[in-house]
Recover the amino acids of this structure.
């Protein structure tokens, strides 16, 4: 049986909206669980291992599954994170690798070492499409996918829209390149970007063309995942970051309510999942 599992991020909940108030972990977990999320990502770039161990038992009490997001700065440093994630019951480790050789030929052995390490520990990994990491550039990442058929992705396409400064509307060629990422992705992240901004407000009229673009990509990703998987959990992470990801006004106040926006993205994705399931019956 296939299931859609929706997550939010602990990073996105600190703070969760434009009040700027950082809630205690107990209240965060209660809020996330009551909203119906299946789990919460623990980002080791925004936090650290001590935070992960502090919040994990609170999440467990509220029935939330942790998803570990790792930023390994050396090849070997990923091993300890993989072990922790296995002990926590994380479905996989989302790797944003800080080991960044200049050439694709230099990147290939790094990716393979991390994949071998994941097999040894018994914890699946996915490589997130993300800036300032080994998958920083769309073109080199596509070369990696060609060179390493077993390499699986976590698609956060907001980074590639900014990194490549895609003109709107995107060309057929550029849309095809993004499709190649989606075809190798086993999970997806929810954030809408433009060629200038990594995180847009969902209801501003000037942003609607980008909102529709990302909704189309999310649906394509879900359809691709379903075509490749007869069973299992498809994980979608609503990850709307606080400032300075979130744009602010002259007083430093956020220009939208990220908590409500994340719920809106989740509702869109849940409707897409339902439509896909009905179309296959």
């Amino acid at each position: 049986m296939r299931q859609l599992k929706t997550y939010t991020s602990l990073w996105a909940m600190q703070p969760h909206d434009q009040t700027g108030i950082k809630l205690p972990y107990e209240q965060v977990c209660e809020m996330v669980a009551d909203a119906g999320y299946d789990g919460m990502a623990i980002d080791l770039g925004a936090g650290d291992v001590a935070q992960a161990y502090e919040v994990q038992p609170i999440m467990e009490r509220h029935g939330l599954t942790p998803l570990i997001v790792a930023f390994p700065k050396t090849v070997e440093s990923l091993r300890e994170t993989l072990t922790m994630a296995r002990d926590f019951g994380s479905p996989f480790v989302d790797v944003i690798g800080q080991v960044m050789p200049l050439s694709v030929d230099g990147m290939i052995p790094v990716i393979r070492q991390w994949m071998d390490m994941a097999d040894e520990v018994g914890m699946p990994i996915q490589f997130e499409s993300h800036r300032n990491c080994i998958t920083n550039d769309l073109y080199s990442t596509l070369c990696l996918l060609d060179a390493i058929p077993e390499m699986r992705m976590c698609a956060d396409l907001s980074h590639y829209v900014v990194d490549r400064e895609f003109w709107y509307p995107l060309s057929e060629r550029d849309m095809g390149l993004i499709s190649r990422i989606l075809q190798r992705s086993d999970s997806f992240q929810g954030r809408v970007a433009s060629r200038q901004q990594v995180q847009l407000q969902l209801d501003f009229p000037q942003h609607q063309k980008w909102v529709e673009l990302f909704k189309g990509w999310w649906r394509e990703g879900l359809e691709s995942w379903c075509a490749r998987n007869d069973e299992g959990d498809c994980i979608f992470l609503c990850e709307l970051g606080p400032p300075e990801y979130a744009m602010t006004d002259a007083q430093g106040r956020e220009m939208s309510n990220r908590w409500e926006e994340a719920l809106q993205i989740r509702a869109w994705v849940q409707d897409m999942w339902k439509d896909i399931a009905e179309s296959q019956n």
In short: The first strand starts at residue 2 and ends at 9. The mean pLDDT is 97. The radius of gyration is 18 Å. The chain has one domain: 2-280.
